[in-house]
Amino acid sequence: MPQPAGRDIAPAKGKLGVMLVGLGAVSTTFIAGVENVRCGGGLPIGSLTQMGTIRLGKRTEKRAPKIREFVPLARLTDLVFAAWDPFPDDAYTAAKKAGVLEPQHLEPVAAFLNGIRPIPAAFDRNYVKRLTGTNVKTGKTKRDLAEQLRADIRTFKKASGADRLVMIWAASTEVYLTPGPAHQSMEAFERAMEQNDPAIAPSMLYAYAALMENIPFANGAPNLTVDIPVLERLAEERKLPIGGKDFKTGQTMMKTVLAPAFKARMLGLAGWYSTNILGNRDGEVLDDPESFKTKEESKLGVLEYILQPDQYPELYGNIFHKVRINYYPPRGDNKEGWDNIDIFGWLGYPMQIKVDFLCRDSILAAPIVLDLALFFDLAHRARLSGIQEWLSFYFKSPQTAPGLYPEHDLFIQQIKLKNTLRWLMGEDQITHLGIEYYEKA
Q1: In 3D, which of 173, 20, 24 has the Cα closest to residue 98?
Q2: Are 320 and 300 in contact (CB under 8 A)?
Q3: Which of 63, 37, 64, 31 is nearest to 50 (CA)?
Q4: Domains in the chain, ordered, with CATH?
Q5: What is the DSSP string of 192-207?
Q6: Coil, helix or strand for 85?
Q7: 10, 59, 168, 201 - which has most CB atoms within 10 Å?
Q8: Short-list 245, 185, 182, 234, CA closest to 212
Q9: pTM, whole model, 2 decimals?
Q10: Contacts of 293 (CB under 8 A, 6+ apart)
Q11: What is the model's pLDDT at position 2?
């Protein structure tokens, strides 16, 4: 069988600048973690790009290199960082306030973190009502703010000596918005910015600025951001990777593991009650009903898409699915995700499953930020433009092309991600159907 041709990928030469929107718990945990790894102070556990392997060819060939040795990713030593935030704290101060990392992982990198000071943010309290920031931009119009963001990008690239950039939204959840007339065309979008239309959220300004500066953009929150027609078209026109949304970390990750198991074994589901308690800035923001609505929509869609109740009405046609998020300051970043799951089996007999995930939200999110930065940069160098559905593995509410439903099953997402990497490098995709069956057919 002839070997498939690989994709022509530009080399990962020079520095990769990672521009983060938000310098809170997730971003500081990510930056400090990368610096710890670079200094030999820890391992990048949770990162597929750094710890994962990929099987190539037949099992008998025993080829399973590390992913970072198989595809031409940027090296950790080549990463440089910048961030916007409405609070003026440098990365060290912000990390101490977040309370995620302990002194042994903060003090050795304190000088490095002290050097990362947040750029004034394009922040509007109308979209994140529980926060009040002082490190914010001013401008007559939202278009002015977008142009200031573009200038920030150019300034950082020049000052850091970065050859390439990626931008990742790691900031708070904005209030719930739906696509409207302002999001349909570039003319309408830019007019809406100039008229300070409420339909244009701050996150959209960052996405617009990134794409106008030819930078890939990934959305790590459930906001309506880059998933609007005008920005999806802009990404395609400029041959830029985009994607999102909402980092898949704790409770939802568990749902995308357990729900496929129920479906695989044709076990019924009567109800799934989920509650979360957390005390970090994310919890404070989500205490506002409008921001919670945005997060709730992201969390609720998972089960319906995985279980396909229209195809299996007897098993999944009458699910009661409830999600709650409660702000509880004593817990800090150590979120507790509790699930009560009511399933039923043979002849309809009921059973229950209880899950109590005492997770660390930012510890789970930090390696996702790293992988997305490296994979979005890879996609850009491989000229993969538009929505990067192969990176759905990392998102609660994966962005898809118009007309397609999102794939939420974690294991299908993983297969798609690894097969995309194989395709990029000219290796056969893995179907897990042994060659002996082909020969007998």
Answers
A1: 24
A2: no
A3: 37
A4: 15-247+362-424 (3.40.50.720), 251-358 (3.30.360.10)
A5: HHHTT-TTS-HHHHHH
A6: strand
A7: 168
A8: 234
A9: 0.93
A10: 175, 176
A11: 45
